[in-house]
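Task card 7
Instruction: Convert sequence to structure tokens.
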Amino acid sequence: MDAAAIDVSVDNGEFIIPSAKQTTPGNTCSLSAPLPSVKVVGQGAINLATSTREDRRVDMDELTVISIGKQSNYPAPIFRLDDDTLGHVFALNADMELKTEDEIPSLFSLLHTSQVCSIWRNFTLASPWLWARVLNISILRQTRHEWRTEIIRRTGSALLHIKSVNRLGEGRDKVSEDFLESILNKNWTRIRSLHLHLNIRTVDDRWGSIFLRSAPSLEAFRFSWPETLGEEQNLASPDFILFSNTAPLLRTLSVANVTQNLATLSISNLRYLVLHPSVSAHELLSSLRSTPLLESLEASVTKVTPVLRESVIRPRLPPVSLPQLKDIKFKIYHAIDATLSLLAHLKPASRCALLFKGSYYHETPSRESVRLYSEVLSTYSKCYPNFETATNLVVTFESDCASLAVKSHSRRHFKFHVYNGAGFHQDIFSTFLSSFKVYQLDIFKTLKLSVEPIEPIVSNTDLQKFILSLISVEVLDTTHQTLDYIHKLQCNSVILVFPALKTIHLNYIHRPNEVSLIINFLNSRMTREFSGEPVTLIMGAGVTADLTTLKVFPRVILKTVARTSGRTSTPQNGWNLRSKCG
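Output:
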């Protein structure tokens, strides 16, 4: 079929490709040929062109749809899928929470899908639930009224997913707000998911009046507005209660920059909770007792306001059992010890992954802080579910930072990290290591290690024993200072440090004395009676020093990583190895 000969029209709000119905008996569409792009302009003529990146800049009064490819007497396998499978595939694209939503809106993806062939078109038009998943207000409000009406009509009576997110720097969008308000008012009782970020500068009572209503179908609610409002403000009156405490199906809740007492909410079915400033720890603990199904707990805060109002939590509060809690993610800058105490009061599932990052900007850690590190680190490292498949370990011990992290092939990682610009008590490093409940240290094959060469870190015997126990490490990502620490440890040890080591990654080597530290490490390693694999040194970002002195080591392979490509290269002309990659 000659793509240039295809005509497309709009008939009663339907986006029709007549040629899709003009195939000969027994023929069907195939995706084996490149698909051209069809632009449907209002109710008028259609222009066809090979799709380019420029074509993706769609005027919102135009629709970019995919036309039929060439015909074939044999249907491609994708056209023989059953309806359940086809629906699942289409639903994966019709997801506004994908990271690609800004560049390729899921609404357009669904429109493309509906125009591939008559089979897919009939399926999508008979599936209101698909159209109900792609109501992106930022896209819809830029189109003509007839176009918006048609998309809304296609949702039928299905439960709606609505998203309206104003990006940073876009400013307030009054048109979108008015359109959003209209959509919410007309369809409130059939909204399943609502994700809103509004660039408003003053509290607007109209939102409070909407969110005060009962929400019988709502399962996910995410709402925020800029922190530039200053002090936290309610959506409406001080006694405002979200959804009038009637949202029986609510499973996901994230309400930012709005004062809200969790104790006033019925959250027994909640699975996913994001905490925003400012929450009372005691109210939170009390509320969490009513969430036995909770699977994920996050804290989303900035450096300006704390997630918890209290700086301490009464230690005698009874623990809260959360048998389904599988993920905890806290990145905080205030009330670090109070937050740790909160975590210590929780009894998570036996397979829970913790990601905790606390930075002391407004308080000073104490010996009680160290005790809390021990309690939380011990409890949650024992709960981490992926140690059996973990291969990557990250250890950072510096004067102002202590961090342990474990990465596995899954996306669920473990991390416990604290930072204090004024430094920590020397007990922190031994506490971290003794509380890190890993059954076997020989499971780790990749190690990212940063040790600051100062007392009391370098003389810490617990750290020395810990490093000597990492006998399976094959890849080491480190610094020249840490390499010097390992060299000195090697000189004082009767056993070889990292006996399975094959590759070392180094960055930012500038001066001859830094190269000397690498040479010292290699000398201490090569002088041992060791017949293992050759060691590959991979020099990455910021390596500007002359590395030719490393040619004295025949069992060392030197590679550089180009900054632009990320690929390694081996020098071709002997050992002329001055790195230009950075």
